[in-house]
Amino acid sequence: MKSERPRQLSTAEERRETVLRTAIGAFAARGYWGTTTTEVAKAAGISQAYVYRLFPNKELLFTAVVEHCFVQVRAALERAAAEARGSSPEAALEAMGDAYALLISDNDLMLIQLHAQAAAVSEPAVREAVRQGYARLVEYVRGASGSTEGQVQEFFARGMLCHLIVSMGADEVDAPWTRTLTAGIRHF
């Protein structure tokens, strides 16, 4: 029987991964419009020309970052669904919700999602990447949890509310309006 060795990344694949990881931080900090490929290249320790060899334009780099973040979200939801306490739709959704709340405590991932949603308004390629990412997530959550349409909608609505709470630091303000928004919402 043939032994399986870990897959070795080529230099180009390694550079692509490095650029993606670097671009996440850059785009999270300044958004789609505020980030240049020059900044990404400098932070990754490569030339701008090499960035363009890996990603022919900023739009393709940003959509690759968006897709990478959706993959991270999906992986977290899969792990949570596999470890859910019970097999009911509610147990699966609760586990996935907790995993998502933990995941967005990494502000870079949450910021990429927020910047992508903002850019999707006027950038068709970004809009398509966001649509495809959510399409895959919705179908995964529906299938993995066995939830109703209403439960799936509520799950995603709570996720968007989590974004709002975390992005404006609502949990740091003790006021009636923040207590209303944060009631029953767990975050890390």
From TrEMBL:
Sequence ranges assigned to domain HTH tetR-type in this UniProt record: 13-73
Keyword entries, A-Z: DNA-binding
Pfam families reported in the protein's UniProt record: TetR_N
DNA-binding positions: 36-55
Keyword Ribosomal protein set for record: no
Protein name: TetR/AcrR family transcriptional regulator
Provenance organism: Streptomyces virginiae (Streptomyces cinnamonensis)
